[in-house]
Design a protein that fits this description.
The complex is a heterotrimer of chains A (244), B (292) and C (327).
Chain A lengths: L4 E10 L2 E11 L4 E5 L6 H9 L6 E6 L2 E2 L5 H7 L1 E3 L12 H9 L6 H14 L15 H13 L5 E5 L7 H16 L3 E5 L3 H7 L2 E6 L2 E6 L1 H6 L1 H14 L3
Parallel strand pairs in A: 3-8, 3-9, 6-7, 7-8
Antiparallel strand pairs in A: 1-2, 1-4, 4-5, 9-10
Chain B lengths: L2 H32 L6 H19 L3 H27 L6 H24 L15 E4 L2 E4 H23 L1 H11 L11 H23 L9 H16 L4 H21 L5 H15 L9
Antiparallel strand pairs in B: 1-2
Chain C lengths: L2 H28 L3 H26 L8 H18 L3 H23 L4 H20 L10 E2 L17 H22 L2 H11 L1 H6 L4 H27 L1 E2 L1 H4 L2 H14 L6 H20 L6 H16 L5 H12 L1
Classes of the chains: A alpha/beta (244), B mainly alpha (292), C mainly alpha (327).
Chain lengths: 244, 292, 327
């Protein structure tokens, strides 16, 4: 079976800056793939390219056997790519359940179905007890879960998670990991950008490492962690930070 | 339409344009500083015009002499409006944009109502002033002295503003606050103080324009409304937040208005400006020099 | 909070509205004073107008301060068709509504690319341009406007010289319809998408909402009903001119009740109209000539106070009380 997501020689330039250079990666159905790398590696750019925020300067993006390079974010969502935002973008004036309903309305015009689906998703993401609360009243970790719930409500095939586990307490992070696993078990493929190694490495099936816009390693977390190039990339950064 | 009359019209248009720029730059400054559009800007102009009229009628002060006084008074007024009204509007959590729009709008309506009630809707004008009624001839073109001096004052004000922003501590503080309002507290800049001073400066500039315009425009409670719309168009044309944009936008608007007046009946002279505004923002949704 | 209680809440809203409509319908049977009836008609009309405005600017968050354009379009279309071609206002208002919706869509195409203040100013500028053009349009009466001679009281021509009651009931029906449309849209795909677009267009797009189409739909619906209000107004006052139906002042008047009552809420516009219109009319008449400007002072202060102290509008007063026990 073909991979659910493929980037083919994707290059992204912003003026003179090359954020992604010749990136060719694939994500198989049912995988949890981690996208990691030091700061400025180009993870967010690649993430946004897959999500459809802007088209790549060069290269193609294939999703579920279709070339989606020219499709904007809304069309990609309709095809099954959902994403969360690193800086949470909840609909502040709406309640939690209403936030999720916006998502579930993608797949149905029946309000009753949309509402039922939204309740389901809230139960799945452990937010059902906050259904009637205004989104603005949630604590940060709940807001993160709302982001995920909303994206899930669109019945995606591929879920893009943008640093959803960063900055959480250890118990919140533990719950977060559980949620990611549950999502995968329900049949959704996951591509996640992360910084927190201790949490991500045990979670993902595969890791793709970016540095300075290029893929420098990919494979099982254990192997990637021992890869020379990866270690240099991270250590090198620490050297630079020490004031070379 | 001889070449002479065309040049005459364009010259007048240029002068008016410089004044429009002066009216608009305060608006651009405030917006650039804190992302708030002062929908009471026209009423600030009206207040300045009435103040100038008052000084002329009660203290026999020529508007030219009165202008720095009016500007200073408007400075205080602007700062007060920030401290008393806008500061609270900026605290809104949801619908922040809407709150700001309607808070300043409410103020505008209130000011207009007060003017109508206390000063009556009668049209006022300053009967005699040093420059009133005089024309100055520049290589064959006759320009009314008040407008010419007014335009000069506008240019000087822009120059002064440029110096203020680029070469003084206050100007640098303004720029810094504009770029990162959160961070400036770390270097000891009191954000509220800068905002209040920014409002004061913006109000002083439009106050200066009002004092000048009182020399050759009728003064009445709704006078601010028509100029306000032109000011918004100038600022939006030039790009919200851009002081240079206000200058360039003003000149452009003045010229377009003069050109339109030559082609269409007088009551339609604003249509040209509106059309230009729409054309510009449809092509460049951020205005000509906008930085947002 | 579950699906059942939600359905209940919706039914209660409907029941309350029906009750209110009936109660209001009975008022003219008790209040015979023509002057007060007049105020009531205006209040209902502004409730309808503000409710229409609310759809685009409240729910969808695209603040328009140029809605007088659609009001004027409705008034002039209906009046011109009536006086020049003898078309009954019933058809005239539908024509006006359709025309307004079409123009809203045509304008939306370029305008909805604009953000924030640029958009608001564009709406003002477009309405002003239309005002100036009509002011100079000889065939439409230019500055003198259109005078509609009232021949005899008739529902066909929607003209009544001897009694205000038919106007009152028409306005009540219009206000009820706009309320109903809002109620229906609130729990619909459009309603949810509009609020998402208002709160965070980027997030909405990531969930598959085509922001542009949403805005267009809101604009069309809003313009349609605003125009019908305009056509009604033309028949109500029997004389229209650019100043009375296309001025910026009117654009403000359509927005203020919603802002006062609660922008983006179901009951806000009606509540705001119920307070603002009688207040304005009474202030104006009791203060007489010397009271010039007092109504503006009242407006201005009210708007400032609401914007600063209660931006969610007066309906917020009712809401906080209801929320406490739900926790």
């Amino acid at each position: 079976m073909s991979p659910i997501l493929e980037t083919r020689s994707v290059t992204q330039r912003f003026g003179g800056l090359v954020a992604n250079s010749d990136v060719s990666v694939a994500v198989e159905r049912g995988e949890i793939v981690g996208l990691i790398g030091p700061n400025g590696a180009g993870k967010s750019t690649l993430f946004n390219l897959v999500a459809g925020v802007f088209p790549p300067t060069q290269g193609a993006i294939w999703f579920d056997g279709e070339d989606v390079t020219a499709l904007p974010a809304t069309a990609r969502c309709a095809r099954g790519i959902a994403r969360t935002f690193q800086v949470v973008k909840s609909f502040e004036s709406m309640t939690v359940i209403d936030n999720v309903i916006v998502g579930s309305l993608l797949c149905t015009s029946s309000m009753r179905e949309a509402r039922d689906k939204a309740f389901e998703v809230l139960a799945f993401t452990d937010l059902i007890h906050r259904a009637a609360a205004a989104a603005s009243e949630l604590i940060p970790s709940e807001k993160r879960r709302l982001e995920v719930a909303r994206a899930l409500a669109t019945s995606p095939k591929l879920l893009l998670l943008d640093e959803v586990l960063t900055g959480l307490t250890s118990s919140e992070a533990h719950k977060g990991v559980e949620l990611v696993r549950r999502i995968r078990d329900s049949g959704v493929t996951i591509l996640m950008v992360e910084h927190v190694m201790e949490i991500v490495m045990p979670l993902v099936d595969r890791a793709i490492v970016l540095d300075l816009g290029r893929v420098i390693a990919q494979g099982k977390p254990r192997d990637v962690a021992r890869d020379e190039a990866v270690i240099t990339a991270y250590l090198g950064e620490r050297h630079r930070a020490r004031g070379a | 339409m001889t070449a002479e009359t065309i040049i005459q019209s364009l010259a007048s248009g240029l002068l008016m344009g410089l004044l429009y720029g002066l009216i608009a730059v305060g608006l651009a400054l405030i917006f650039g500083l804190m992302d708030v559009v002062n929908f009471a800007h026209g009423e600030f102009l009206m207040a300045a015009m009435y103040a100038t009229f008052g000084l002329a009628a009660l203290a026999a002060l020529d508007p030219l002499i009165a202008s720095p006084l009016v500007a200073a008074a408007m400075f205080g007024f602007g700062a007060l409006v920030y401290l008393g009204v806008v500061r609270f509007a900026m605290r809104a959590k949801a619908n922040a944009g809407m709150v700001q729009i309607f808070a300043t709008f409410g103020l505008a309506i209130l000011m207009r109502g007060l003017a109508q009630l206390l000063l009556t809707p009668d049209y006022r004008s300053i009967p005699t002033s040093w420059l009133g009624g005089r024309t100055i001839s520049i290589s064959g073109i006759f320009l009314p002295a008040p407008q010419l001096v007014g335009a000069l004052i506008a240019v000087l004000a822009f120059g002064g503003l440029y110096v203020l922003i680029r070469h003084t501590d206050f100007g640098r503080a303004l720029e810094a606050t504009r770029e990162d309002p959160g961070a400036v507290a770390l270097v000891g800049i009191d954000r509220n103080r800068i905002f209040a001073l920014g409002w004061g400066l913006g109000a002083a500039l439009v106050g200066l324009a009002g004092a000048v315009m009182a020399m050759f425009f009728y003064i009445y409670p709704d006078v601010g409304a028509s100029f306000a719309l032109i000011a918004y168009v100038v600022v939006a044309l030039g790009g919200f937040g851009s002081v240079f944009g206000a200058f360039a936008g003003g000149i452009l608007v003045g010229l377009v208005e003069a050109t339109t007046a030559m082609i269409l009946p007088p009551s339609l002279k604003s249509v040209g400006i509106y059309a230009v505004y729409l054309l510009v923002v449809f092509v460049r949704p951020r205005g000509l020099f906008g930085s947002l | 909070m579950d699906a059942a209680s939600f359905v209940q809440r919706r039914r209660r809203q409907l029941a309350l509205a029906a009750l209110l409509a009936v109660a209001v319908a009975l008022i003219p049977l008790i209040v015979k004073d023509v002057y007060i009836q007049n105020i009531l008609v205006l209040t209902l009309m502004y409730a309808a107008l503000s409710q229409s405005w609310n759809i685009l600017s409240g729910y969808c968050g695209q603040i328009s301060l140029g809605h007088a354009l659609y009001f004027g379009l409705g008034a002039y279309t209906s009046a011109l068709l009536f006086t020049k071609f003898g078309v009954l206002p019933w058809f005239g208002m539908l024509a006006g509504g359709a025309l307004s919706a079409a123009i809203a869509l045509a304008l939306g195409y370029p305008c909805f690319r604009l953000r924030g203040h640029y958009f608001v100013i564009a709406t003002i500028v477009i309405a002003e341009t239309a005002y100036l053009l009509v002011l100079n349009w000889e065939w439409a009466g230019a500055a003198l406007g259109i005078d509609m001679p009232v021949r005899q009281d008739s529902w066909l021509t929607l003209q009544f010289a001897r009694t205000k009651l038919p106007y009152f009931y028409f306005a009540l029906v219009l206000a009820s319809i706009t309320w109903l449309v809002t109620w229906a849209l609130e729990d619909s795909k459009w309603g949810y998408w509009w609020r998402a677009v208002k709160d965070n267009p980027e997030a909405a797009e990531s969930l598959g909402v085509v922001v542009f189409h949403s805005k267009m739909a809101a604009a069309a619906v809003s313009a349609f009903f605003t125009a019908i209000g305009g056509a009604f107004y033309a028949q109500f006052v029997s004389y229209i001119d650019p100043d009375s139906v296309m001025s910026f002042h009117f654009s403000l008047l359509m927005a203020l009740p919603a802002v006062l009552g609660g922008i983006g809420t179901l009951w806000g516009p009606a509540l705001g109209a119920a307070i603002l219109i009688p207040l304005t009319e009474l202030t104006r008449s009791y203060m007489g000539g010397s009271g010039k400007g007092v109504d503006l002072i009242v407006y201005g202060t009210l708007i400032m106070v609401i914007a600063l102290a209660r931006p969610e509008g007066l309906v917020g007063l009712f809401r906080t009380r209801r929320r406490e026990p739900a926790r």
